[in-house]
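From the pipeline queue, job 12 of 40. The input is one protein chain; the requested action is below.

Action: predict structure.
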Amino acid sequence: MTRFATRGGSLRIRNGLVFDGTSETLEARDVLIRDGIIVDEQTVGSGSRDVPTLDAKGGMVTPGFIDAHLHAYALSLTLLTNETRLLSYVALVAKQRLGRTLHRGFTTVRDVAGGDAGLHRGIEEGLIESPRYYYTGAALSQTGGHGDPTAADDTLCFHSGPGLEIVDGVEALRLAVRTRMHGGAHAIKIMASGGVTSPADPLKIPQYSLEEIQVVAEEAGRRGSYVAAHAYSPDSIQHALRGGVRSIEHGNLLDPPTAEAMREAGAYLVPTLVTYDAMSRHGRSLGMTEVGLSKNAEVLEQGKHAIELAKNSGVPVGFGSDLMGDLEGEQLQGLRLQSDVTGVLELLRSLTSVNAALLREERLGRIGAGAFGDVLIFDGNPLETPELLWSQRRPRVVLDGVPITASASQ
């Protein structure tokens, strides 16, 4: 959990209609933040009068949004480029990406293929303007899996980079998980099926053996953590669930029996609709291969159907963006696309309370006593005017009780 050393502000937000993270009923009330934490005004007495105020002017006040599938280190749409640049440069790119993400209204992100204790420390110390930052470290891939950036005819021997590491075998995976936990990782990311941008793996075939996935889940679980799995097809999703995976990333090809299996396992779906939409429009000009474009076309239209199946089966549905390289600026369009499927209220829940439950952090994703002072203030009511959620005119952002200065570049 990110603990900002230089923030912890106090603030009163007046005249707002408060969405608490779950309820469809908005409440007209003040929100009081003390030392970075939302408090019940009745418990703090007269001392609540001496804090700065912001006037919401009748607009909606929501918890800060959470992007549960972000890649701060993703320089481009080419995996090999992302994994072979010096980490000093990669970190500078991440700094900019994280800052822009915060200004869009995402006050927490989960980086599911990258991040490390050094970047996290820089965020906590205020060296980097960033949302609260959860990270998995480099995602784990089998040889020839989605995290293997080499083509079949490459002579390059790739082992690891900032966002991906090839690890085969039960004992090697056990050590890899322990290393990540020692390095402060929030969760473990594995590649459990083929992917769009990887050059040599079929999209639908399950990756990693059951024994390999089980040892990853066992080691993570013993540390109070969990496994997030990149997976598209029913076979790969069910294989991952049998291994103990808790978070299914993407899941575009989900079918009804597999959605039911997810519900029974208590798993979450983190859809990433916008990345496929953005790649279909811009991928060719940004250097995607014909293989990648073909794979993208295969999953593009199925993502919305997967969300509908998950919701109908009682599977909690979060929100993720998964944007790489120059597609990062499409992040807000992900809100529009998911809203088209679920409606605005369910989207707001996905962005706040559902993603907070996925992260196992009760201080996120809600407006109530004891929650972090991470708040958005919209000029109107997105339940009535949904376009406010993805408009380039962003809400006012409060992180840890401190207003974020507006940025012209979002």
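Job complete. The chain has a mean pLDDT of 94.
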